[in-house]
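Sample intake sheet
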Amino acid sequence: QVQLMESGGGSVQAGGSLRLSCVDSGYTDSINCMGWFRQAPGKEREGVAAIHPSSGRTYYADSVKGRFTISQDNAKNTVYLQMNSLKSEDTAMYYCAADSGYCYAWSTRLLSGYWGQGTQVTVSS
């Protein structure tokens, strides 16, 4: 079974950086897409970025392109989200997700996959 746990959230001022981590402590061989989502109060859950573990191919939402970077350390079964130039609108709970399907249409596909409990990111202006 896939078990995801996020860490690295916190409070930061606008323009600052944070790095989120997601560890998969369960069965990883079946996973073909991992990603990050976020949800702010009163808003829908939004796909932020995704990565295909085997190829390393990455995908990003337009709102974070050029500021966020998703990466992985396969030896540690860990996916990272490096967030730079943070804005107040990046404030949200951030979730890690994984699915056995490939990353095609990742922002929809991952919604039905495995999820972590989330880590809060707060950006103050």
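Comment: Residues 106-109 form the longest helix (4 residues). The mean pLDDT is 94.
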